[in-house]
Structures are given as structure tokens and as C-alpha cells.
Amino acid sequence: MLPSLKQKFAKMSRKKLLAGVLVIGLVVSVVAFNIVKSMKPTGIPVKTAQAEIKHVQDNVFATGRVRLVEKQEFYSYEETTVQEINVDPGETVHKGQVLGLLDAGDLEDKLSNAKANYVVQQSNLASALNPRPEEIAQLRADYNKAEADYQNAQNNYARIKQLYDEEAVSAQELEKADLELVARETEYKNAESRLEIKTSGPTKPELTSLKAQVEQARIQMELAQRQLDRTTLTAAMDGVAIAVEVAEGDHINPGTRLITIGNTDKVEVTAGVSEADSGRLKTGQQVKVTAAALPDREYTGTLHSVSPGALVKTGNQGSQIEVPVIVRITGDSEGLRTGYTVDLTITTVDIEKTLVVPYEAVVEKDGKRVVYVVQNDTAREKKVETGLDIDIYTEIKSGLKEGDKVVVSPDELLSDGARVSEGLRDDPSV
């Protein structure tokens, strides 16, 4: 009995000893591994991200107001009275339709007088350029008579002068003969001048003056006609009456807006883009248009124009510089009423597939743009050709390939060949 217990105890002791030895060996191995590991250099800790192919888009945002592309506004140009209004807001109108009448006053008389004066001035010019034969005959007869009268006055003066020298007549009679001679000479020279003008035509200054009088008369006639035409409010296009702002019998002052018509199928948006964003704009860029009044609708358009100048806009938050732009709605514009305030999303960049890295990965070094690519726990400096800076990304034209791991926000002390310890950065686009 006793030997058996002793044997069992001996066997149990050997097992415990063996287990203890194994445990001690494991502990020693772990400690040794950690010591060795702690002696191995870990490198500079860095965050990395992968160069990847992405669909990138960049947008500029603005707020604008809807207006008609094609419209006609009627204003009063004189102080007058509204005689008729023949259209209501929202009513369809057609080209040539009379929408209203204003009191013409004495404009018809002014037009008649202007037409008569124009005819007279045209006649004067025609007569100077192409005199009638009977006119020339009459002027020649006047000239011949004036010449004869002048000759007779000369003869009479010579006779009186001789008698005066002989003291046969008084000084008063000589003076009277002298005055008669001067009068007849004046008539003769005037008759000669009139005949010469008719037969030789007007001089250049005279012709210029006559043509100027005709042109002035024409302008006055057209102005009178225009003033009279403005009293009849005639539609110059097909469209819809957008606004009727006066009623029959209203007394109106110059500059009063009366009626507005327009083509509601063609609308555009005017807006102002901030100075900082304006450099990214080009005509033809695609635009998304939304309106608070139509929360379930989205409209499409294109950037039609970008002003070459900027304006200072003053609001509740102070003054800011804006560049005026116009966006044309290209698709369906149903429900988009003139005067609505809308939000614009102008797409300045839209690239379906391009290689990008986070913009913090690209740094300037010695006048060139570089990135640090991690290969086998080592940072390798690579020169890259960049394209657009788009939101949180920079486009890479050359120098990298898809999948390359680049250091994000590299430390200034990081250099080519440095050992690094990397950790992937979360996707910045999430």
C-alpha cells in the first residue's frame, strides 16, 4: 500500500516540474521577443492615403432671381391720361394686338406740321439742284430789267452832273440822281446774283445748309410720328400679359410703367457670384436651379454670360464684391415664375475619372510639387504634375499610379529614404 502511494506522488511531481519548466520557457521567450522588438527601429509615424481614381466635381453656389428672356415693357413718355386698357394679367396676347390707348393730345397736329415742313425743305433743295425753266426765264427777265434801269440811272446821273457843273441845277438834284443810281445798281447786282445761282447751282456751303435743313425736318417728322405711335400700346411679340399696372382714366406721369408682356417659355436667372469664386466661372458651364417655392422641382441651365466687371453689393452683413452672371434655363421651365428667388449650383469642374490624392499630400519643395510614397516602410520622394485642386483633393496628372500610398500632411523633416510607420487615413470624402 505505501509503495504504491509513493510511486504516484513521484509521478505527479515529475509532471508539475515539466509544466513549470514549459511555463518558464514561454515567459522567457515572450520577454526575449519584446526585448528584441523594442530594440528594432519603428520609423517616423505617418498617416497615409491611397491614390485613387474618382469622379470629382467642383461647384460654385449663388442666389439669383428669375426674369424673362423675351419681354416688352410699355412706359408713358408724356404726362397724359389712360383711355383704354384691353388686356388682363395672365391673358395670352399676340403680335400686333392693341393692348391699350393713351390720350394723344395735340400730337396729331404736331405730326401734320412736321410733315408739311419736311415737304417744304425737300422742295427747296430740289429747286436749288434742278431749277424749272420758267424760274430761270423769270430771273433772266428781272436781270434784264434791272440792267436797263441801272443804265438809265447812270445816264441820268451823268446828265444831272453836267448841268450841276454848269450851275443849271441844284446840289439837291445831283444828290437825288446819285441816290437813284446807287439803288438801281443794287437791284442790278442782286438780280445778277439770283440768276447766277439758279443757272450755276448752289455753292457747296449753300448745298450743305439746304441738306441739313431737310435732315432736320425729317428727324422732327419721325420724332412726332414716334410720339404719336407711343399712345397706342401694340404688342410686338406673342406672349402673356405679365403685369397691368394702370387702369382706364388714370392720369400718368412720364416714366410710368403701364404693361409688361413676355414669353414665359424662355426664362433666365440673374445672380451675383462672390469675388473669390468668380475666377472659376466660364460660359457654358452646367447649372442646377432650385426654388423654395417649388421644393420638389429641379431645373437645368447653362451659364450664359459672366460680366467682365464686378459690383459692390451692400446688404445686412456689410458690403461685398460680386460678379454679375446670367443663367439660361435650358430644360422645362414650367412653374418657374418671373421674380422668384432661386438657388444656383454652378458646376465648374466635372471629371468622370481622374487620379487624385488628398490635397494635404502634395507639398512644395525647391519650386516643385512632390509627394512621399510609402514603399516597404520607407518614404520615397516623387515629383508629380498636378492638375486641378478640387474640394479636398488634388488631381495628379503624372508621377503616381492608382493604389500608391502617399503620406498625408508630411512633416517638414520627412526626407527621401526615411523609415516610417504608417497608418491609413480615413476616407476624407466620407
From TrEMBL:
Residues 136-234 form a coiled coil. Pfam families: Beta-barrel_YknX, HH_YBHG, YknX_C. Residues 355-421 form the YknX-like C-terminal permuted SH3-like domain. It is found in: Cell envelope. It comes from the Bacteria. One of its GO terms (cellular component) is cell envelope. Keywords: Coiled coil. Residues 102-229 form the YbhG-like alpha-helical hairpin domain. Residues 268-346 form the YknX-like beta-barrel domain. One of its GO terms (molecular function) is transmembrane transporter activity. InterPro entries: Beta-barrel_YknX (IPR058636), HH_YbhG-like (IPR059052), RND_pump_MFP (IPR006143), UPF0194_transport (IPR050465), YknX-like_C (IPR058637). Its main location: other. Belongs to the membrane fusion protein (MFP) (TC 8.A.1) family. This is Efflux system component YknX. It comes from Sporotomaculum syntrophicum.
